[in-house]
Amino acid sequence: MPTALITGVAGFIGSSLAASLLDRGYTVHGVDNLSTGYRHNLKDIRSDSAFSFAEIDIRDTAEIADAISGAKYVFHQAAVSSVPRSIDRPVTSTDVNCTGTATVLDEARKASVDTVVVASSSSIYGTGEGLPKVETMAEQPESPYALSKYYTEKLTLQFSQLYDISTVALRYFNVFGSNQDPNGEYAAVIPKFINRMINNKQPIIYGDGQQSRDFTHVDNVIRANVLAAEGDVSGEAFNIGTGSRITINQLVEKINSYMG
User: Fold this and answer.
1) What is the pTM of this model?
2) What is the pLDDT of residues 30-40, one digit of tens each?
3) 151 catalytic, yes or no?
4) What is the CATH number of domain 3-173+216-241?
């Protein structure tokens, strides 16, 4: 089986993807600067002889070049995520997401990588044109994070046009699953709600709770990454979601039901 590099491997999506690829027989190299990822997310795979980890910032050209060497596939998951965080820290979000992605793509090109799969975001659509979001809709990024992901995606697809490398962009919707951090002011809603309810605290709901999201389990995201890498879909962007919606009120009801 091939060798893959995963950036952002200590994040919840990256670590889940690493475990899945190892199960498929891949050799996996993972990098993360641990600004939002955690070493404990890798505890179940650190002992696997087919896995290696290096603490690297994706903007470090020399380190990324070394990490990519020998990889057939690159799964670029590393990013400064969260719309609110990007509004608070627009320079950091733009630098890491845009410069970091350009660095990863360029070093992948130089290393003759077969395919680079890049994590984009449903946030690039903005709030216009109704629901559900489909790939033919216009992109209307409404935050520094969304704008950085818009750039990330466009640069990724442009690389397949300019160079001899396959690239795919995956527009993640609201991903949830194992290893997702429940703490911090930028934590995602599902782990944050579960964490509060485990500790006998009410979840905090803004507005009337009727706002809806497309919540997508991380297993769907992993499958999409594998299909994108191993398939023949270069130069395309795909929505990775369920195509259905659930309100925040319904989410709380479901969590209550599952937790008893």
Assistant:
1) 0.96
2) 999 999 999 99
3) no
4) 3.40.50.720
